[in-house]
């Protein structure tokens, strides 16, 4: 299951990439984000591995992030592993002008091995798309406030 799109942000590409790259900002636009813990590799660079922790009500979630490509301010790609699913994220930042940046994204779920999420993905694929799009709108609002 793959989805992609873009959002235009009223800030220069360097500012957008700087705010995107700083894990301290994740709590500003990712609902439930608690912390990111560096595990190995050069922090934030290609090959780096980190654990990401989220909490939604009583549910806790742990993801392992492996950065597969970091060429910011233009490109960032990563693989995310959870015990029940894997997905990839590709982000491209395109300067539309000195003060506007297009954030183009592509998310792909490459493995879903738990019955209920797999059924939801088949019957209601928007259930996976909507949270990602919400986070992008929240990221835009956060960046434009800076």
Topology:
Layout: E1 2-9, H1 13-21, H2 26-29, E2 33-40, E3 49-56, E4 59-71, E5 75-82, E6 85-97, E7 100-112, H3 115-123, H4 126-145
Antiparallel strand pairs: 1-7, 2-3, 3-4, 4-5, 5-6, 6-7
What key attributes describe this structure?
alpha+beta; single chain; seven-stranded antiparallel β-sheet
Structure description:
- The chain has 146 residues and is α+β, with helices and mostly antiparallel strands.
- The protein has a single domain (2-145), classed as Alpha-D-Glucose-1,6-Bisphosphate, Chain A, domain 4 (2-Layer Sandwich).
- The chain contains four helices and seven strands, in the order βααββββββαα.
- The chain has helices at residues 13-21, 26-29, 115-123, 126-145; strands at residues 2-9, 33-40, 49-56, 59-71, 75-82, 85-97, 100-112.
- A seven-stranded antiparallel beta sheet has the order 1-7-6-5-4-3-2.
- Strand 3 (49-56) and strand 4 form a beta hairpin.
- The radius of gyration is 15 Å and the shape is globular.
- The mean pLDDT is 90.
């Amino acid at each position: 299951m793959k989805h992609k799109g873009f959002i235009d942000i009223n800030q220069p590409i360097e500012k957008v990439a700087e705010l995107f790259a700083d894990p301290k900002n994740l709590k500003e636009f990712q609902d439930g984000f608690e912390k990111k813990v560096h595990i190995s590799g050069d922090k934030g660079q290609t090959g780096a591995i980190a654990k990401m922790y989220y909490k939604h009500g009583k549910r806790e979630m742990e993801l392992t992030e492996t950065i597969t490509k970091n060429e910011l301010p233009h490109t960032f790609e990563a693989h995310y592993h959870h015990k029940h699913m894997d997905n990839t994220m590709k982000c491209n930042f395109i300067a539309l002008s000195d003060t506007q940046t297009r954030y183009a994204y592509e998310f792909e779920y490459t493995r879903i091995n738990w019955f209920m999420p797999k059924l939801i993905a088949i019957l209601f694929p928007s259930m996976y798309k909507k949270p990602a799009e919400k986070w992008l709108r929240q990221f835009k609002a956060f960046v434009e406030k800076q």
